[in-house]
Specification:
501 residues; Aldehyde Dehydrogenase, Chain A, domain 1; Aldehyde Dehydrogenase, Chain A, domain 2; 2 domains; seven-stranded mixed sheet; six-stranded mixed sheet; 37% helix; binds nicotinamide-adenine-dinucleotide
């Protein structure tokens, strides 16, 4: 395999660099377990260089001073470059992450092009308050300004798309960024840096460094030259980052874990719900923060739902992620598969009934594959109903009444995504208002669009990706006040000393 290994470098201050230590890290294809690439294994000193470059580009460079229209033109260049190379980029993402080529080529990449175009256009419409005499003595207006240097830390499940969701709005609004992809899936993010260079971002505006989260992540989240940290990752990582960034009081944008309820009422279209359950449960191998991962099914249709879900699960085609007829590729890593296996064991030990799957498929000698898995008889207090598994494991719970299912669905530390399947409008409206999640979908589970916000309630984090709300995350507002009186001693000065004039 050695001759097929690609060597990638990091992108700091417009230069392609190795780690200062010369160390590299091997990148594995989870479908074959072969080493496909090596990337720099950066250290604190490399992280500091990238931060300094972004700081200098923000404080002394032209990017934050350019008009929204000028910045938009660079982002639109980037969108076109990505569009022209989607086949190759999707293939690289699939080989690095294990996701199916269908998901990467028809989902993540075209969507990211639309995301970039949205940010490019929407950032031109951002406004502050119009100028006005809110005090009779002067004129006030609000400026909306970039936050500064943003550390952007991404997870391994959607490496490319999360980099775009972070860098897109941050750059469109005039910030400079240091992007750190997850250690196991850095390849397309490094390609993003190449495309940014071609698109015309000035040097230092976009920096990409690779290395262990605990080391360079810690530097990115505590270095005083970083103004804001934006991370998509596990809730436990979000907590660490909050602690770590508290000494310099950084602005935070945290997109964290999820445990999305998928609630099916007796009056739902059962076929639609079952197909929706399989699609939203096995999406991206179940490694999706909005994955349907707790199925609450009303008692009248419970047994038929489980039976049909098993039938649907049997149709899922496991195989080489680069084949267009594969539905489920390998999990991202051996460690992730072991984590999923441990949850299957918990499910069995805690008394849930394994209806389907639950093991490694026998026909693959290599690759971190795991079968689609269905559990019935799951109770609210079982680990598989409460904790994020992040794999193709679908736990099905039974409920009887509306208030009961609202309470059970909300009984979680997470609050990212949810769905309700019913033909009763009143039930749908009631749940839409009572479910404490950043998204509630009725008779579907997953669809997202550039115009709508994505982000959590509770310990799924705070701050929104996509939509104009994401642009607000990466800006801050400033009150500018112009004295219009010209008075040397102003009317209010007596409050501090002397008497009224
Ligand atoms: P993770 O938390 O292990 O890693 C995320 C990133 O944080 C990686 O780049 C990692 O290197 C870095 N990191 C780790 N420790 C760090 C530290 N101490 N300081 C700074 N950075 C550190 O998450 P993951 O396993 O890569 O991704 C899966 C998780 O991401 C799941 O919990 C999933 O729900 C979540 N996720 C959330 C969303 C969302 O929009 N809310 C989207 C995708 C994934």
């Amino acid at each position: 395999m050695g001759e097929n290994i690609q060597f990638f470098r990091n992108y700091i201050d417009g230069e392609w660099t190795e780690a200062e230590s010369g160390k590299t890290q091997k990148i594995i294809n989870p479908a074959t377990e072969d080493v496909i690439a090596e990337v720099p294994k950066c250290d604190v000193s490399d992280a500091r260089k990238a931060i300094d470059a972004a700081r200098n580009a923000f404080d002394n460079g032209r990017w934050p001073l350019m008009t929204p229209g000028e910045r938009s033109a660079v982002l639109l260049n980037l969108a076109s470059l990505v569009e022209a190379q989607m086949d190759e980029l999707a293939r690289l993402e699939s080989m690095n992450q294990g996701k199916t080529i269908k998901q990467a080529r028809d989902g993540d990449f075209p969507f990211s092009v639309d995301n970039i175009r949205f940010y490019a256009g929407a950032a031109r419409t951002l406004a502050g308050l119009p100028a006005m005499e809110y005090m009779s003595t002067g004129t006030s207006y609000v400026r909306r300004e970039p936050v500064g240097v943003i550390a952007q830390i991404t997870p391994w499940n959607y490496p490319w798309m999360m980099a775009i969701w972070k860098a897109g709005p941050a750059l469109a609004t005039g910030n400079t960024v240091v992007i750190k992809p997850a250690s196991v899936t850095p390849l397309t993010t490094i390609r993003l840096a190449e495309l940014c260079e071609k698109a015309g971002f000035p040097k230092g505006v976009v920096n990409v460094i690779t290395g262990p989260g605990e080391i360079i992540g810690n530097e990115l989240t505590s270095n005083p030259k970083v103004d804001m940290v934006s991370i998509t990752g596990d809730t436990a990582t979000g907590r660490k980052i909050m602690e770590r960034s508290s000494s310099t009081l950084k602005k935070l944008h945290l997109e964290l874990g999820g445990k999305a309820p998928f609630i099916v009422f007796d009056d739902a279209d059962l076929e639609a719900a079952v197909k929706g359950a399989a699609a939203a449960g096995y999406v991206n191998g179940g490694q999706d923060c909005t994955q349907a991962s707790r199925f609450y099914v009303q008692e009248g249709i419970y047994d038929s739902f489980v039976k049909k879900l098993v039938e649907e699960s049997a149709k899922v085609r496991i195989g080489d992620p680069l084949s267009r007829s594969t539905d489920l590729g390998p999990l991202v890593s051996s460690a992730q598969r072991e984590k999923v296996e441990s949850y299957v064991l918990y499910g069995r030990e805690e008394g849930a009934k394994l209806e389907f799957g639950g093991k490694r498929p026998e026909r693959f000698r290599k690759g971190f594959y795991f079968e689609p898995t269905v559990f019935s008889g799951v109770e609210q207090d079982m680990k598989i109903a409460r904790e994020e598994i992040f794999g193709p494991v679908l736990p099905v719970l039974r409920f009887s009444g509306v208030d009961e299912v609202i309470a059970s669905s909300n009984d979680t530390i997470y609050g990212l995504h949810s769905s309700v399947w019913t033909t009763n409008v009143r039930t749908a409206m009631k749940l839409a208002s009572r479910l404490r999640f950043g998204a509630v979908q009725i008779n579907d589970h997953l669809p997202i669009t550039s115009e709508m916000p994505h982000g959590g309630y509770k310990q799924s984090g705070f701050g929104k990706d996509m939509s104009v709300y994401s642009l607000e995350e990466y800006t801050q507002i400033k009150h500018v006040y112009f004295d219009m009186t010209g008075d040397r001693r102003k009317g209010w000065h007596y409050l501090t000393y002397g008497d009224p004039a």
